[in-house]
Amino acid sequence: MTGQMRVAMYYSNKDVRLENMPIPEIGPGEILMKIEASGICGSDVMEWYRRDKVPLVLGHEVAGTVEKVGKDVTRFKKGDWIVAAHHVPCNTCDYCHHGHHTACKSLQGGTNFHPGGFAEFVRLPAINVDRGTFPIPEGVSFEEATFAEPLGCVLRGQNKMRIKHGASVFVIGTGISGLLHVSLARAMGAGKIIAADISEYRNDMAMRFGADYTVLSDKDLAANLIKANGGKKAQNVIICTGAIPAIKAALDSVDKGGTILFFAPTGEGQTLPVSINEVFWKKEVTLTTTYAAAPADHIAALELIRAGTIPVDEMITHRFGLADAQKGFRLVAGGGDSVKVIILPQE
Ligand SMILES: [Zn+2]
Ligand SMILES: [Zn+2]
Question: Which residues contact 85 (CB under 8 A, 6 or more apart)?
């Protein structure tokens, strides 16, 4: 006999319904987690990515407490404050052995918690308990702790690109990922940071979190970025938007010897023809990509949050209960005047 719980069921960006589901049963090695805060991610509103699986309960940036532990769980007990990763690596495949944990099949869809973070409770499978559940450091709130995953993704990206101290950085697209990139690059000793977005509101936010200049994305984006950088191209370019013109601008604004991080996916089926001779040849440009965050990235992100290095609490602009999750999705999908939207399932 199980009780019922409330969930926000996702049908589309414009159709998110408050529904009831049974509270998940847990087995050996598993945890029932009570969700206190759950961030809406840009990827939650990528309809093309979700539409084959609807209806479903989304939400993967979760913080809460241990409600119940299954047999054999020794590292956690009822009442512990935790964050949980939805996808975890196998730690045994070739990708994992070579440090590419986020390319692992287990991480890319083989694992998940159930039903999803926009619910009162989730079941953490044993493999997630084993390597994807982390104590929230003392002094960190549930809301701040929801940033472990998004900041972990950003940290992984910047670890891959290895921004040198004093090196210039262009961040194209200043939604929450772009802002976290700006803030992290600033904290890690980057030189001049110039951010670009189509939204003036988000550019203002980028200034607040460490950008030196911002430019509005338009057809002269590359030229404007270079102008803002004193006529120089950038040593690091981070692409946090899937807009093809912005990606073209990134290719045009990276300096010789520079690195481009492709952080965001494009729209479905989009491609980009590039002149190898003009854009890359003789330029020693490095292209790199990251997807998601590995357990080590979550741990490092939590530590950055605990230390106050990245002021994530200041990035939260809206909070809603499960019944108003639809409003939160509308805000994130609309890309208007919001940064981080948090769902509080216990409200
Ligand atoms: Zn996310
Ligand atoms: Zn693996």
Answer: 60, 128, 132, 133, 134, 149, 293, 295, 298
